[in-house]
Every structure is written in structure tokens, then in C-alpha cells.
Amino acid sequence: MKGEQNMSIKNVAPKRLGNTTLYEGKEKGYWVDEADPQTGNRVVHQLALTTPFGRLYVDKYLTPKEYQMAEDYRDTFDRAGFPAGMAQQDLSKPMGSHSDIVEETDMNIAARKRLKKLAEILGTKNNQVVWYACGYCQDLHMIAFRLTLSLQQVKERLKNGLNDLINAEKNNLI
Description:
The protein has 2 domains: 2-48, no CATH class; 53-170, no CATH class. Helix content is 49%, strand content 14%. The protein has helices at residues 2-5, 52-58, 64-80, 106-135, 140-147, 151-170; strands at 15-22, 27-35, 42-48.
């Protein structure tokens, strides 16, 4: 029996065993059963999912391309340097809608210009959801509440928005 426990499982795909919470119940996560890439031995561990689009990707709602586009949006949002918790910015101004920050870098301004271009591509409906889900990484239930939408509508708008961005990238619009 002991020999069976150390059996190699290199050819077995990771398997989600169930939900868990991490960091004193503040973060959602999953128990994952998979093979150690070096030894092939079975490993059960916790996987933290820190973004709402990360959870949708693990649940196979988002494709790898959609997930990557969400990560790219988040990276651009981070470079823009918006303060946490603010409502959607006025992207018609290069500095955004807050003027209390004295010094802005070229990176901040370039990222804000890119976000403005992405907002134009997304349109009002999809931009709000992508802004909150990928930019601020807010929980989808909170976004649904904030925008008075159903959870399914939020997921659909996120998916549609990410696909709009993927298509724009294919057509060299961004």
C-alpha cells in the first residue's frame, strides 16, 4: 500500500478538489491535486486566486487568450497609478480625474492614454465591467451590485469586452 502512495502521476492533469479560503478567510482558493513537475509525485496544495478573472479562468469560463488580455489590462491599469477605490476616472484628461497628485510619470500618462483607447474600443457597457474586474480586481458580485446587473450579465460583459480587446489587438488597433 505504501508504494502506491508515492506512485508517479506525471501524465495526470491537475484536479480541483474543492474550495477553501486562505489568509484568514480573506482570499478564495482551491485545493488542487497535481503532479510535481520535477518528480512526478502526487502533490495536494492550495491555489490562491487573487483576481476575479483568475477564478473565471480556473473555472474554464475564460479562455487562455481572454485571461492574458485581462492580465494585460491589469498591468496597464497598475502602471496608470490610479488611487485604490476611486470610481471610474475621467480619461479625457491625461492625468485622469484626480488632480491632487503633484508628480506624474511618463509611464502613468502613457498607461492612462492606453486605457482611454481601450475604453473607446470597449464601449460604455463593457468598459465599466472590465474596469472594475480587471483594473481594480473587484469581486464580480460587488460589480453586479454596483452596476445593478445580474452576475451572469457581469460575466458576459467581461467576456465580450475581453474578446473585443483581443480582436482590436489582432487588427492592430491597440
